[in-house]
Amino acid sequence: MLFLKFLFAFIVGTQFTLYAQTIDFNQIVKENETHKRPMMVFFHTDHCPYCKKMITEEFDNPNIKKFIDKEFYFIDINVDSKTKIIYKDFKGTADQFGDLLEVRFYPTIMFMDNNVIVSNIKGYRNPTKFNVIMKYIATKSFESMDLETFINELEMKD
C-alpha cells in the first residue's frame, strides 16, 4: 500500500511539473540576441479543430518545420494549459496572457521582433498562404511594407 501511495504521489508530482512550465519572453529575448530571429508565437486551444488542422498541416510538415527552425524562435502557447507566462511586467497564465494581448480567435499566430509584436495573424491559413506570411516576417519586410504589398510584389515577380 505504501508503494501505491508513493507511485500516486510521483505521478501527480510529475503531472504538476509538466503543467507548471513557465515561458519567460524576457529571457527568450536575451537568449535570442545573438541569433536575432523573430519569435513566432502560436496561440491555440485543445478544443479548436482549426488549431489541430494547422498543427497537422503546417507544424508537422517537415519542410515548414525546417523553415521555422531556421528562421524563427517558435513558442507554442496552449491557452487551456496551466503554463505560466512572463512578458515584460506581466506574470500570469497562458489564458491571461492571451487576454492581455487581446487574442480572441484561435488559432492566432503572433510574430514578435525584439519583444515587440510586428504581426498578428488570426485564423487558419493553408500551407501556401502560411509560407508567404513566414517569408514576409523572416525577410523583415514588415519594416518597409505591409503584407498586402509584399504579396503583390511576390505576384509581380512570377
Description:
- Strand 6 and strand 7 (116-122) form a beta hairpin.
- This protein has a domain at 21-125: Glutaredoxin (3-Layer(aba) Sandwich), CATH 3.40.30.10.
- The chain is α/β, with parallel strands linked by helices and 158 residues long.
- The N and C termini lie far apart (71 Å).
- The strands form two sheets. A four-stranded mixed sheet has the order 3-2-6-7, with helices on both faces. A three-stranded mixed sheet has the order 1-4-5.
- The chain is globular and about 45 Å long.
- The chain contains seven helices and seven strands.
TL;DR of this structure?
This protein has helices at 2-19, 25-31, 49-59, 62-71, 94-100, 127-138, 147-157, and strands at 22-24, 39-44, 73-78, 84-87, 90-93, 108-113, 116-122. By secondary structure, it is an alpha/beta fold.
Set out the fold topology.
Layout: H1 2-19, E1 22-24, H2 25-31, E2 39-44, H3 49-59, H4 62-71, E3 73-78, E4 84-87, E5 90-93, H5 94-100, E6 108-113, E7 116-122, H6 127-138, H7 147-157
